[in-house]
Write a structure and sequence with these properties.
Helices cover 51% and strands 12% of the residues. It is α/β, with parallel strands linked by helices. It has three domains: 5-137, no CATH class; 148-221, no CATH class; 228-287, no CATH class. The strands form two sheets. It has a five-stranded mixed β-sheet. Strand 3, helix 3 (82-97) and strand 4 form a beta-alpha-beta unit. Helix 1 (5-15) runs antiparallel to helix 8, helix 7 (171-183) packs parallel to helix 9 (205-217) and helix 8 runs antiparallel to helix 9 (205-217). The longest helix is centred in the last third of the chain and has 25 residues, at 224-248. It is elongated. The two termini are 26 Å apart.
């Protein structure tokens, strides 16, 4: 399973384009309600050795012919080269599509969000020709949702809020609220949100909290993450059974062999070793010459 906060922070808008309407309201931006939303190619590369690729690109069309393009960028840390790239994206999109572009930057920490929120004038100081003004969503303005009833009203927004608050001291309560809210949700709705949350948390400590919650609160789901957790539980149980048989037989298990057994995640391999373990007189008998 891919575990990338960067992917989750922008891909959630691909999967649930309507989320932007709720986010824009939270950020104080009033836009016409779209009648259609379509995903368009993200490759902004020119016919020369220069590649510019926006994370997610959507087109919003509303009644009355009002339309705009939404470029979503996930930003993990300050990057002083980014404003120039973002300005390029917006200029290119306006030139290519003749449709007003809007840039949304999604962050997971306040410092990055504050940096990304700055207006960047482009041009001579007395008369900048352009001014870059990203719309920024992050822990500074996304809600901390710890009420299950509130979470159930908008599960997608709750998922994005949890992702942006991945480093929040209250992330445990936030994730518990989300997992509880998802418990009574149809699997087809819950599965992608479970996976997006796991991606969004990345390798932060909160990621293990989410895995534990999925294992308990959402154990009946068959998402990729829940299946992975169940496989881990099965492999751990088989590994312990192998070691118990060897201990019963009086077989000394060196540290390297113990690590090989407990570190194996392949169920078929573990089952082969388990079949040999009851009669094994040495660790080599368990491995059967494998590797």
């Amino acid at each position: 399973m891919v575990s990338s906060p960067h992917e989750a922070m922008h891909r959630i808008f691909q999967e649930y384009p309507g989320l932007f309407s709720r986010v824009s309201e939270l950020l104080g931006l009033t836009l016409a309600a779209p009648t259609t939303v379509s995903v368009i190619p993200t490759d902004l590369t020119e016919n020369r050795p220069l590649e510019r690729r926006v994370d997610t690109l959507l087109r919003f069309d509303a009644k009355g012919g009002e339309s705009f393009l939404l470029a979503v960028e996930a930003q993990g840390k300050r990057d002083d080269d980014k404003p120039a790239s973002w300005a390029y994206y917006l200029s290119y999109l306006y030139t290519k599509y003749r449709t007003p572009p809007l840039l949304l930057v999604v962050c997971q920490d306040r410092r990055t969000a504050e940096w990304a929120s700055r207006a960047v004038p482009i041009g001579p100081r007395p008369w900048p020709a352009l001014t870059l003004r990203p719309l920024v969503a992050g822990p500074h303005n996304m809600p901390v949702i710890t009420d299950v009833a509130e979470a159930r009203k908008d599960l997608v927004l709750t998922t994005l809020a949890a992702i942006t608050h991945a480093a929040d001291p209250d992330i445990g309560a936030i994730l518990k609220t989300l997992s509880t809210a998802l418990r009574d949700t149809p699997e087809v709705i819950a599965d992608p949100l479970v996976e997006l949350t796991a991606q969004g948390l990345g390798t932060r400590p909160a990621a293990q909290q989410w895995r534990n919650l999925v294992a308990v609160d959402l154990s009946f789901y068959k998402s990729a993450l829940s299946e992975e957790i169940r496989d881990e539980g099965r492999s751990e149980g088989i590994a312990q059974s192998i070691l118990l048989f060897l201990a019963h037989n009086g077989v000394d298990v060196p540290d390297a062999a113990r690590e090989r057994i407990t570190g194996c995640a392949d169920i078929d391999t573990l089952n082969r070793w388990l079949l040999r373990a009851p009669t094994a007189m040495s660790v080599e008998d368990v491995f059967g010459g494998e590797g």
